[in-house]
Design a protein that fits this description.
mainly alpha; elongated; Helix Hairpins; 3 helices
C-alpha cells in the first residue's frame, strides 16, 4: 500500500468523523464531545445507546451517516488488514529465500547423532 493510499484512507475516515461531529453538534445541539463520541460509536457499530438523535433530520442524517460512513470505515479496515497480510507474506518469502527451504516432506530428517549425516 502506497503512502498516498494510506493518507487518503486516513483522511477519508477523519473527514467522515469530522462531518458527523459537526452534523450532530448543530442538528441535535449536543456538545462537541458528545457529537464526536456518538459519531465514533455509531461508525464503529458499537452503539452504546446513551445518545439517540431526537430530531427528524438527526434520525435521517444518522441513517445516511451509517450507510456512507460504515462503507468507508469498512474499506479502510479491509485495506489495512490486506496490507498487514501482504507484509507478512513478503516477510515469510524473504525468510525462506534467506534461510533456504531445508525441510523435504518426502524425506525423514536425519537423526542428530547419525554419523552418516552430512550436517556433522
Amino acid at each position: 500500500m502506497t503512502g498516498v493510499k494510506i493518507l487518503t484512507l486516513i483522511a477519508m475516515v477523519l473527514m467522515i468523523i469530522a462531518g458527523g461531529t459537526v452534523f450532530f453538534r448543530f442538528v441535535e445541539g449536543w456538545s462537541w464531545l458528545d457529537s464526536y463520541f456518538f459519531t465514533v460509536v455509531t461508525l464503529s457499530t458499537v452503539g452504546y445507546g446513551e445518545l439517540v438523535p431526537a430530531t427528524p433530520l438527526g434520525k435521517i442524517g444518522t441513517t445516511v451517516f451509517i450507510l456512507v460512513g460504515l462503507g468507508i470505515f469498512a474499506v479502510a479496515i479491509q485495506q489495512f488488514g490486506a496490507y498487514a497480510v501482504r507484509k507478512r507474506e513478503e516477510h515469510t518469502e524473504w525468510l525462506i529465500a534467506r534461510l533456504g527451504h531445508r525441510h523435504h516432506p518426502d524425506k525423514e530428517p536425519p537423526a542428530a547423532n547419525d554419523p552418516e549425516s552430512p550436517d556433522t
